[in-house]
Design goal:
The protein is of the alpha/beta class. The protein is built from 13 helices and eleven strands. It has helices at 88-97, 123-138, 152-162, 179-195, 203-212, 219-225, 240-255, 257-275, 291-298, 301-307, 324-331, 347-350, 352-365; strands at residues 47-55, 58-67, 73-77, 101-105, 145-150, 169-175, 199-200, 230-236, 277-283, 312-316, 336-339. Strands 1-2-4-3-5-6-10-11 form an eight-stranded mixed beta sheet, with helices on both faces. Strands 7-9-8 form a three-stranded antiparallel beta sheet. Strand 1 and strand 2 form a beta hairpin. Helix 2 (123-138) crosses helix 3. The longest helix is centred in the last third of the chain and has 19 residues, at 257-275. The chain is globular.
């Protein structure tokens, strides 16, 4: 099987005809209309805030979404090109399972975070960002924190843990990112990025593409998370027809005064039309420009993950993800692993219940928290 890492789409098997993959939730009977309208963050998180931190270049602001009031903190890190909203449906599910608090963060240059240096997406810089946000939120006495990261976010979670930027680290959960598979796939990333649409006519159009392409198989998750991947832009509605009519007016103006007056009125009307803007949506992050950081995210990831002393959970979309170091480590019991079949690369979006169940069981087993009263595991 040709292994591909598409930053945030690393399918466990080749796509089927029509863009759907086996196990997709999007196969519907004829005549059923699908709703691609966006859903608000407030339906899944309790609060949203911007956290300001000091950096060498000045102040940076990171957008976070939170839920829960007691228990350990689940600090959620999204994959490349995505945003904290990719954790929306998962957050609702996990908060119904266990006593916990959730903090989902828009990483540097992603989502609605605003930083001075948008181009620095090195693992070291992003790991420091997380440490600073944790410090800004909790000061010198942070609560127990379980760090959970998907894809690029999983790699950054490992780098953050290895550098001890979160001293109260309780445990580490990495979702569908393995060094061997990632490094093998670096060469195919640009091809995937070039194959994506450059823009969308509407947010609904972007949501529809994400589902039909197989990037996100869960319709509900796509409807809330795609707003964090794309942004609204504007372009002039000027067209060749407008340009031609202006040129014709200039020619007529030279012929006689009456035609010139008529031409001026026509140009003023067309100028007004040209000012009008037409909205469209494009990607928030130009992932192709981050290529120089890809190797730094993934190189040495397996040994860093294995060396982390905190209890570890690795969730994968397919068993083919495991590389040699992790295979040996798993046999030695250095971490717990679970394969969640029939998922694409966005495991926590495709199957939020399965991911929540695996994480809840892991945390209760390690006595990090307890199941909520009345929840049947």
């Amino acid at each position: 099987m040709e292994k591909q890492l598409h930053l945030n789409r690393l399918p466990s098997r080749p796509p089927m005809a029509g863009g759907f993959q086996s196990g997709s939730k999007m196969k519907m009977g004829p005549g059923r209309k699908r709703d691609f309208s966006p859903l608000p963050w407030s339906q899944y998180f309790e609060t949203m805030e911007d956290v300001e931190v000091e950096n060498e270049d000045g102040k940076d602001t990171f957008r976070i979404y939170c839920s829960g009031s007691h228990g350990p903190v689940l600090f959620l890190l999204h994959g490349g090109g995505h945003s904290a909203l990719s954790w929306a449906v998962f957050t609702t599910v996990i908060c119904s399972r266990i006593n916990c608090r959730v903090v989902a963060m828009d990483l540097r240059a992603h989502g609605d975070s605003k930083v001075k240096n948008q181009d620095d997406l090195s693992a070291d810089t992003m790991a420091k960002d997380i440490g600073k946000v944790v410090e800004a939120l909790y000061g010198d006495a942070p609560p127990p924190i379980m760090m959970i990261g998907h894809s690029m976010g999983g790699a950054i979670a490992v780098h953050t843990a290895a550098a001890n930027h979160v001293p109260s680290l309780l445990g580490l959960c990495v979702i569908d990112v393995v060094e061997g598979t990632a490094m093998d796939a670096l060469n195919s990333m640009q091809n995937f990025l070039r194959s994506r649409p450059k823009s969308f006519k509407s947010l609904e159009n972007a949501i529809e593409w994400s589902v039909k392409s197989g990037q996100i198989r869960n319709m509900e998750s796509a409807r809330v998370s795609m707003g964090g991947q794309v942004k609204k832009c504007q372009e002039s509605t000027s067209s060749p027809a407008v340009s031609n009519s202006i040129s014709e007016g200039i020619i007529e103006e030279e012929e006689d005064e009456e035609a010139a007056e008529e031409s001026n009125k026509k140009r003023m009307k067309e100028d007004d039309q040209e000012v009008q803007k037409e909205s469209f949506f494009t990607w928030r992050v130009e992932l192709s420009k981050t290529e120089k950081y890809w190797e730094g995210w993934f190189r040495g990831l397996s040994s860093l993950f294995l060396s982390c002393p905190a209890p570890k959970l690795l969730l994968l979309a397919g068993v083919d993800r495991l590389d040699k170091d992790l295979t040996i480590g798993q046999m030695q019991g250095k971490f717990q692993m679970q394969v969640l079949p029939q998922c694409g690369h966005a495991v926590h979006e495709d199957a939020p219940e399965k991911v929540a169940d695996a994480l809840a069981t892991f945390m209760v087993r390690h006595k990090f928290t307890e199941f909520k009263e009345g929840f049947l595991c």
